[in-house]
Amino acid sequence: MIEYTEGIYNFYVYMITNKNRTVLYTGVTNNLKRRLNEHKNHINASSFTARYNVEFLIYYEHFGWIQLAIAREKEIKDMRRELKLNLIQELNPEMKFLNSHFE
Questions:
Q1: Nearest alpha-carbon partner for 17 in 84, 100, 97
Q2: How high is the pLDDT of residue 3?
Q3: 3-class secondary structure for 2-65?
Q4: Domain-embedded: residue 83
Q5: Cβ atoms within 10 Å, residue 57
């Protein structure tokens, strides 16, 4: 995936989907392993991701500074679905689930 090595911290912008790959969710976190686990276990039962069973990682970018991660998250969230899919398919053409990278 994409990695921005400047900075000394770990932040991730990520996109997750449901089992059928029909729903996309974009988020930012400092601990992707923990966050994926929260999505999987529906920590907030009334959340968008819980309602649509969105828990499968298909894209992520690593950042060393939170400001860059937040700016990138906003940029991705503002994209049309088609552009998000193009972004995902550039680095993950088969849209494989990548959760195992953070177990």
A1: 97
A2: 56
A3: EECCCCCCCEEEEEEECCCCCCEEEEEECCHHHHHHHHHCCCCCCCHHHHCCCCEEEEEEEECC
A4: yes
A5: 23
Residues composing the chain: 103
Given CA atoms 37, 41, 43, 49 in this order, what sign does their dihedral have?
Answer: positive
In a domain, 2, yes or no: no
Express each pLDDT in 76-89 by its tens digit.
999 999 999 999 99
> Residue 50 belongs to what domain range?
11-102
Query: Whole-prediction pTM value?
Result: 0.91
Dihedrals φ, ψ of 62, to 5°? -105, 140
Two tokens at 58?
A: 């298909």
17's tokens = 């989907």
